[in-house]
Design brief:
Layout: E1 2-9, E2 16-17, E3 20-21, H1 35-45, E4 49-54, E5 58-65
Antiparallel strand pairs: 1-5, 2-3, 4-5
Length: 70
């Protein structure tokens, strides 16, 4: 398995809608908030898993992708 673990500190309030995180970037006419969805689609295509955890100060994403073909 390939395991990717990313942990980041944050100070923003993380907003969620319909079990999806909303972008904290200001709306400047550019698309925002698609990054995690794109990562999830790629992980799904590889039969992997993506877990997102967060609290008031830490944001954690853990991705596991098998390194074998089913």
């Amino acid at each position: 398995y390939l395991k990717i673990h990313c942990q980041n500190n944050h100070t923003e309030h993380l907003a969620e809608e319909n079990h999806k995180l909303l972008s904290t970037k200001e709306n400047d006419g550019k698309p925002h908030g698609l990054g995690l969805e794109n990562v999830q689609q790629t992980v799904d295509r590889q039969s992997g898993t993506m877990n997102i955890q967060y609290d008031s100060s830490t944001f954690i994403v853990t991705i596991i992708i098998p390194n074998y073909k089913k």
